[in-house]
Amino acid sequence: MMNKKNILITGSSQGIGLAIAKHFAKDYNVYITGRYEDKLKKLCDENNFSGYSAIDLFSENSTEKLLSQLAVDIDILINNAGVYFYSPIEKMVNENILKSIMLNSVAPYELSKLVVPYMKKQQWGRIINIGSISGVMGEANASIYSMTKASLIGLTKSLALELAQDNITVNIINPGWVDTELINNENLEEDFTKDEIIETIPQRRFVTPEEIANTCEYLISDKAKTITGQSINICAGLSLGF
Predict the structure, then answer these.
(1) Could you say which of 28, 31, 52, 145 is catalytic?
(2) Is residue 145 annotated as a catalytic residue, yes or no?
(3) pLDDT recorded at residue 190
C-alpha cells in the first residue's frame, strides 16, 4: 500500500487492542500505547509496528504527551484503552470512580479533540471507540463501567454529526464477553466462573479479539464510508437477553 495511513490504538499491549494492532500491521503504520515501555518495545520489534508511547493515561496532560511522543499525524484513531471495576456501588472507592471516568470517557474525548484538526485538514479520518455491551444494557455491580462506556455512545453520535461533512466517520463497537486475558484471570472466578458466563450468552461462546479487529477493518474501509454514528454490538447475542 502506497502512503500508508497512520493508525493509533490505545490500550494495545494486550487483548483486543493488541489483536487490532496485529491485524493492521501489514497495511498501516501502527502505533501502540500502554504503560510498560519494555513490553511495548518488544511488541514493536516482534510485529513490525511503527512506534509506541509508554504512558499512563490517568496522568495529567497524558493525551498531549502521547501524541507529542509519537510525533506523527493520526489518520485513524481507535480508542480502546479502558478500565473495569466490579463492585457494588456503596463499596466503590472514589479513586476507582475517577480512574474509570478519566480512562473510559475523558481520554477518548481528549484524543479525538487532538486528532480531529488534522483529519479535517485532509478531509478524511476514522474514529472508532471500543465501548462495551455493559454501556448498552447496564451491568449490575459494574455501574461506573456501564456509565462511562455509555458516555462513549453519546460522544460517538455527537462527533459523527459534527464531523460528517468533513469525511470523518465516528462509530462505536460494543463487545460482549471477549476471549482475552480477563476471561482467563483466576481472580474472575471469585465472582463467576467461565461456565457461568457462557450460560448467559445466547450463542454459548465468547467473542474473539479477531472478530473485533475484522469489524474495525470494515469501518475503516471505503466500503463503510456512509456508516457513521453507529453503535455496533458484537456480543454473540448477549444484548438480546437470556
Answers:
(1) 145
(2) yes
(3) 58
The closest of 49, 19, 225 to 130, measured between CA atoms, is 19
Taking the model in full, what pTM does it have?
0.94
pLDDT for position 1: 44
Rounded CA separation 95/59 (Å): 13
Q: What is the pLDDT of residue 185?
A: 52
Q: Which ranges of the chain have pLDDT less than 70?
A: 1-2, 181-191, 242
